[in-house]
Amino acid sequence: MKNNIWNETVKNNFNNAAENYLGYSNIQRHFAEKIVSLLKILSIQKGEWIDLGSGTGLLADEIEKEFSKKKITRIDFSKKMLLQNKESSKKILWDLNNCLPSSIINCPLMTSNFCIHWLDNPEKIIKDWFSKLRCGGYLIISYPTINSFPEWKQTCKETNVEYSGLKFPLSKNIIKNFNSDEIYFSNKYLYVENFPDVYKLFRSIVNVGAQSTKSKRKKVSELKEMQKFWSKKENNSVNLTWEINIQILKKS
After folding, report:
1. b vs e for 210-244, b when ≥16 Cβ sit within 10 Å of the residue's Cβ?
2. Which tens digit of pLDDT belongs to each residue from 16-68?
3. Chain segment 237-251, per-residue pLDDT in tens
4. What total number of domains does the chain contain?
5. Nearest Cα to 73, choosing from 109, 44, 114?
6. N or C: where does the chain have the smaller number of CB atoms within 10 Å of the terminal CB?
7. Structural domain of residue 82, as residue ranges?
8. Is 214 domain-assigned?
9. What's 113's domain CATH number?
10. How far apart are the first and last CA of the chain?
């Protein structure tokens, strides 16, 4: 799938999920709160704070709750997602596959929660974001790693059904272009979701607009096979395990 078609598919899915996103984004909220807890121990200079791939404003809102005097600039490519943000907030409609707007420069803080894995060239984009920081500024990113979804991948092996999940980044590749003194913090966390069955698991992905895939859509027969062979808990429910990396880069 060509990048422009892929990007349009991703955008349309997030647009369609915008109105209901906050009701289903438990993992995104969990790591937004972790990012805020890390922000509290950083000494951040005065200036404009920016949330990249802000979606409905989940992370930006959490930051503003903790730092009541700050107003976070929200940037996203989904117009409908941005419309879910507070009316009073500064919002910029922008495709983050492109370099940031020229007006974004010399920032003390940029954050991005569950965004970079949707970008065409995350390593290059992260480097561009970093270049827009001022000296002493921070870039904080969180994203699922390639080690996410072991239950799903194992089930696909057992059933000979193609794994259709997104190919998440390899953590070391995201920061390979940075010097060791620029990597302020990097830590991986496991997050386990539980669902009554495989069907509701996949529905949860659709509910937040994250169902975009470059693989063929699953047939009903394939879903039934996956439901049959997916490892079950004692109550017959199923788990989906994420590995999330939070990294903080500091410009010296």
Report:
1. bbbbeeeebeeebeebbbebbeeeeeeebbbebbb
2. 999 999 999 999 999 999 999 999 999 999 999 999 999 999 999 999 999 99
3. 999 999 999 999 999
4. 1
5. 109
6. C
7. 3-149+166-192+242-250
8. no
9. 3.40.50.150
10. 39
